[in-house]
């Protein structure tokens, strides 16, 4: 007989909205559970003011809409949906909680996000002729609240939700399950997991091609086009263009012969000059949030990579009163770091041995630090990544070279090296600025999201300046012409502060 959970398991989701919105959301969830093949029946229990979920194998769960015990400690109009699994197997519990987490956002929550993203939310006003009506869109963008506003704008620009596909990168975002639920239950958009990337791409192409359309790729990390070119090359002609948000994504398509235009928001002047500091600041803030009892002031830190993000990370750590060293394999960047006053060296191993950093921040986007360097770290050191997925550190080497590897939950993974110190890889090596967080504030990321949509309109309209391959100069010109940077300046430039006391 399968083991039963003991004690009962509980999961709570806070939603913000009116009482009616919260009740409606809870009722929808109960209805969805009620038609699940694993559920025998859903019964409203008046005595406990909750829904009781009776499973076909005798297990039982319960849904209760509650209020926070201390309203002053939560946002106004917060309601708490509590899912309790009281009896059954671990597998049944996992299925029950997967459904319970799948909650769309309330209208109040969506309205708040729209207000925080004025550039992205008003894009349809720029193009009332719906320039995206003739294309499908395949998106691999971070699953945060801001993404939903971008999706709403793409729909308003003409994309049919039946011809939109979203790849869930499966990062542990703060609201990843709710974002998925909103896409599916409010818009009917097809969502595929990253682990099923190829199948998702094939499904998308089949649906959109059947409607006589081509598609635009909107990517964040170079996931789609390399897969198409390597595994589905005969399907590459389905896509009219690629809009890429990240430098790591640009690296992944380098060396590939692109048969379509690349609109490089990642390399644009707009993104480089405005967003990099925000990402660096979010990465450091989330690191400190995970390590509230550590003291980093006066301690040595090492930044790997002195590109746009690494440059800003080094500056933020310096402001936090850390002693910062920088390593970059590119000699020009290394010289730049030296001339800004950071400790540098031509050999990473020698630099680690001399500086003995307690905090190592990877900003390279490819394997930058392995077992050989980790052995030289002091006891209780921390590795932090700011780049896509878990490619920054040689985690396989660390595991093989350790006597003990411990999963420490939300904190990350600890490694006791066989012939070295005990270290901790925060967030299991995934990008720390997204680790159970929203990363940048919505108002900060607004300009970049709007830029992605501008790129989608340009490649869908087959702008004659966009040729197969990289188009950095054309990207900069099109973004400048769009007026979104002017609007950003009007919102947050000197005139925005006029009249403030």
TrEMBL record:
Alphabetically ordered keywords of this record: NAD, One-carbon metabolism
Family annotation (InterPro entries): Adenosylhomocyst_ase-like_sf (IPR042172), Adenosylhomocysteinase-like (IPR000043), Ado_hCys_hydrolase_NAD-bd (IPR015878), NAD(P)-bd_dom_sf (IPR036291)
Keyword match Lyase: no
Gene3D superfamilies membership: Adenosylhomocysteinase-like, NAD(P)-binding Rossmann-like Domain
Record's keyword annotation contains Protease: no
SUPFAM superfamilies referenced in this protein's UniProt entry, alphabetically: Formate/glycerate dehydrogenase catalytic domain-like, NAD(P)-binding Rossmann-fold domains
Domain of life assignment: Bacteria
Ranges of residues in domain S-adenosyl-L-homocysteine hydrolase NAD binding: 275-439
Names of required cofactors: NAD(+)
Xref: PANTHER family: ADENOSYLHOMOCYSTEINASE (PTHR23420:SF0)
Protein family membership: Belongs to the adenosylhomocysteinase family.
Annotated protein name in UniProt: S-adenosyl-L-homocysteine hydrolase NAD binding domain-containing protein
């Amino acid at each position: 007989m399968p083991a039963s959970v003991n004690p009962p398991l509980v999961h709570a989701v806070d939603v913000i909205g009116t009482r009616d919105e919260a009740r409606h959301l809870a009722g929808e969830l109960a209805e969805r559970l009620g038609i699940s093949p694993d559920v025998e029946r859903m019964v409203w229990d008046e005595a406990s003011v909750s829904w009781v979920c009776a499973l076909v194998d005798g297990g039982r769960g319960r849904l209760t809409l509650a209020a926070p015990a201390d309203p002053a400690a939560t946002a106004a109009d917060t309601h708490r949906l509590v899912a309790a699994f009281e009896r059954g197997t671990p597998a049944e519990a996992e299925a029950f909680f997967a459904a319970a987490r799948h909650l769309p956002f309330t209208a109040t929550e969506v309205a708040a996000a729209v207000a925080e993203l004025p550039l992205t939310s008003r894009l349809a006003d720029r193009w009332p002729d719906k320039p995206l009506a003739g294309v499908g869109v395949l998106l691999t963008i971070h699953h945060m609240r801001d993404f939903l506003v971008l999706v709403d704008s793409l729909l308003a620009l003409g994309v049919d939700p039946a011809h939109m596909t979203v790849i869930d990168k499966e990062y542990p975002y703060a609201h990843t399950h709710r974002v998925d639920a909103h896409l599916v239950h409010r818009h009917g958009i097809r969502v595929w997991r990253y682990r099923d990337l190829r199948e998702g791409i094939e499904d998308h192409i089949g649906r959109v091609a059947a409607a006589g359309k081509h598609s635009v790729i909107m990517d964040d990390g170079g996931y789609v086009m390399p897969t198409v070119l390597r595994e589905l090359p005969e399907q590459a002609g389905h896509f009219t263009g690629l809009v890429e948000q990240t430098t790591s994504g640009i690296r992944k398509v380098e060396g590939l012969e692109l048969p379509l235009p690349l609109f490089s928001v990642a390399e644009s002047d707009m993104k480089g000059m405005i967003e990099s500091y925000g990402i660096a600041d979010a990465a450091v803030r989330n690191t400190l949030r995970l390590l509230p009892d550590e003291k980093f002031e006066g301690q040595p830190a090492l930044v790997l990579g002195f590109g746009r993000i690494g440059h800003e990370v080094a500056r933020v750590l310096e402001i936090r009163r850390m002693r910062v060293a920088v390593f970059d394999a590119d000699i020009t960047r290394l010289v730049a770091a030296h001339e800004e006053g950071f400790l540098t060296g031509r050999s990473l191993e020698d630099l680690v041995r001399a500086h003995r950093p307690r905090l190592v921040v990877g900003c390279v986007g490819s394997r930058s630090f392995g077992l050989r360097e980790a052995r030289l770290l002091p006891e209780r050191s921390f590795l932090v990544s700011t780049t896509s997925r878990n490619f920054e550190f040689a985690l396989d080497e660390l595991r093989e070279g350790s006597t003990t590897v411990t999963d420490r939950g939300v904190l990350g993974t600890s490694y006791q090296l066989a012939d070295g110190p005990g270290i901790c890889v925060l967030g299991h090596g995934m990008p720390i600025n997204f680790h159970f967080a929203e990363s940048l504030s919505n108002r900060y990321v607004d300009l970049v999201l709007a830029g992605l949509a501008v790129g989608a309109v340009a490649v869908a309209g087959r702008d004659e300046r966009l040729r197969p391959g990289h188009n950095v100069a054309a990207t900069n010109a099109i973004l400048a012409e769009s007026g979104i940077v002017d609007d950003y300046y009007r919102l947050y430039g000197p005139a925005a502060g006029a009249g403030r006391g």
